[in-house]
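Sharing a chain and its predicted structure for anyone who wants a worked example. Both blocks are below, sequence first, tokens second.
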Amino acid sequence: MLLYTTVGTNDLERAGRFYDATLPLIGYGRQKEAQGEIGYGADGDVRCRFWVVEPFNREPATYGNGATIAFEAPDRASVDAFHAAALAAGGTDEGAPGLRPFHASFYAAFVRDPDGNKLVAVCEKPV
């Protein structure tokens, strides 16, 4: 349904270090970089599906209250690794890895990036 998603940053270099440390652990990598933006996607994808950008209007980047970007992870170990890497790379904990009440196999970890954007890595596969 979604073509791509963006989050804003006030420090593109810092954000790039954060996402380079976390997204490969759940199957996504940096695919493009241009002035003011970095794009990430899965191997073999025809486009970047997740962009980290400096706001076009040059105003400070802010995060959306109630907004969360969810990434599909290949397995529960990847969710655990994503969470640990996010904290090590300057993110903050918003919910340690574990099962959530959404359904029996919804295993997730929630973090905020250094700009405050809320992210979650999710594996919905049963053990």
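Comments welcome. The mean pLDDT is 96.
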